[in-house]
C-alpha cells in the first residue's frame, strides 16, 4: 500500500474517532441552548480557556515530545520508556499545579470573570484540567502505534459516557454549568483509568532521567507555541468579555463550534496521522510529492466543508438553537477561514519537523499571537465579534506566509500554489452570490440554491486544475457507490496513478 493510501486510510478512521470525540458538544447544542443562557455558555467557554491555558503551560508539550521521540528510538524498551517517562513527568506537574492553585480559586475567578462568584466552578475546572489532559499521553501512545481502530473505540466509549452524564446532570439533576464539569470529571476518570492501566500493562513503568531531559528540552519551546496558538484562538473571548458581555462571548463561542466542524472532521484527523507518517516518509524519494498531494487535497476538502458550513449555518441554528443564539451564523465564514489557514500549519512546519527544531515554531506562533493581540485591541471594541474573527484570520495568515518561507529553506517542496489559491477565491465568490440571492428568494428555494452551489464546487475545482480528471471521476463514483469509490481512493497514488 502506498504512503498516500495509508494516510488516506488512517485519516478516514481518525476522522470517525475525532468526530466521536467532539460530536457530543454539537449533539448537546439543542439542550445547552435551551437549558443554559448565552451568559452560561460564555462561562463554560471561559472556564475551558482557563483549563486550556494550564494544559499548555504545565503540560510542557509532553504529548508532542512523546510522539516525536517514540520514533527516534527503534528499540521497544526505549520506546516504552519514552511513554512512561512522559506520564511520570505530567503526573508530578499536574498534581503540583492543582494543589497550589486550589487555595487561589477566588482570585482566579476574579481575573477570569471579573467577580469571585465563580470560585467553585474554577475549582472544578482545575480537576477537569488535570484528569482530561493526563489522558493525552496514553492517547499519544495509541497514535504512535498508528492503532486508529483502537482510537475510534476509545472515542466511542467516551462519547456514550459523556452524553449520558450530560443529560443526567443538566436535565435530571439540573446542575447547570457545574453539571457539565462533573460530567467531564467522571468521564475522564472512567476512560482515563482504563487507558492508563492498559498503557502501563504494555509499556511497564520505567521512567528515565535521560529521556526525561530530552522530552522536556523538546517540549518547552512548544509551550510558547501553545500559548501563541491559545492567544490566536481564544484571547478574543477574553477581550469580548472585557469590551462586551458574557452574552457576546456565548454567541461567538457558538459560531466557533459551528465553524470548528471542518477542523473536527478533516484537519484534526489529518494531523493525527500526518505527523507520525511524515516522520517516516520525509527522507524517502516520494516524500515531497506526498506533501504536495496532501496539501492540495486537504485544502480542497477544507474549503468545501467551510463553504457548506457557511451556507447552511443559519438553517442549522434555526433548527437546533433558541432564538438568542441564531445571530452567531453570520460570523461563521470568517471563523472558517481562520481554521483553513490554521490547517496549513501541517505543511508550513514540515521543514522544522525534519530538522527537529521547535524554537522557530515557537517564534512563529509568538509573532502570530502578537498580530492577533493588536488586532483584538484595535478591532473588538469597534466591531465586536467581526473584529475578533478577522483578527484571527490575519494572525494565521501572517504565520503561514512567514512560516512557509522559513520551512522551505530547510525542506523545499514545490507546492501547486494556483491549485491552492484558486478554489478559495472561487468559494468566496460562490458565497457572495448566495448572499445576494438571499435578498431575492427565501425558504425552500434558497435552501435548494445553496445545495446546488455547494455541489458545483468540485466542478470549479476541476476547472481550475485543483482536481485532476481522474480524481473528479472518483468523486463522482463516490456519490453513486460510496463503498466501491473508497476502495478506488485507496488504490490511487498521489500522482493519480493506480498502484
Query: How large is the share of residues in beta strands?
Result: under 5%
* Major sheet characteristics: none
What are the secondary-structure elements, in order, as H or E? Answer: HHHHHHHHHHHHHHHHHHHHHHHH
Mean pLDDT: 85
Q: Fraction of residues in helices? A: over 70%
Helix and strand content put the structural class at mainly alpha
The gross shape turns out to be globular
Describe the structure in your own words:
- 83% of the residues lie in helices and 0% in strands.
- The protein is an all-alpha fold and 499 residues long.
- The chain has a domain at 1-222.
- Helix 13 packs antiparallel against helix 14.
- The longest helix has 35 residues, at 209-243.
- It starts with a helix and ends in a 9-residue tail after the last helix.
Compact summary:
The protein is mainly α. It has a domain at 1-222.
Could you give the topology of this structure?
Layout: H1 3-27, H2 29-35, H3 38-59, H4 62-72, H5 76-101, H6 105-113, H7 119-134, H8 136-144, H9 148-172, H10 177-203, H11 209-243, H12 246-259, H13 261-281, H14 287-320, H15 332-343, H16 345-348, H17 350-354, H18 359-383, H19 385-410, H20 417-438, H21 443-455, H22 457-463, H23 469-480, H24 482-490
Helix pairs in contact: 1-9, 1-13, 3-7, 3-11, 3-12, 4-5, 4-8, 4-11, 5-7, 5-11, 6-7, 7-10, 9-10, 11-12, 11-18, 11-19, 12-15, 13-14, 13-15, 14-15, 14-20, 14-21, 15-19, 18-19, 20-21, 23-24
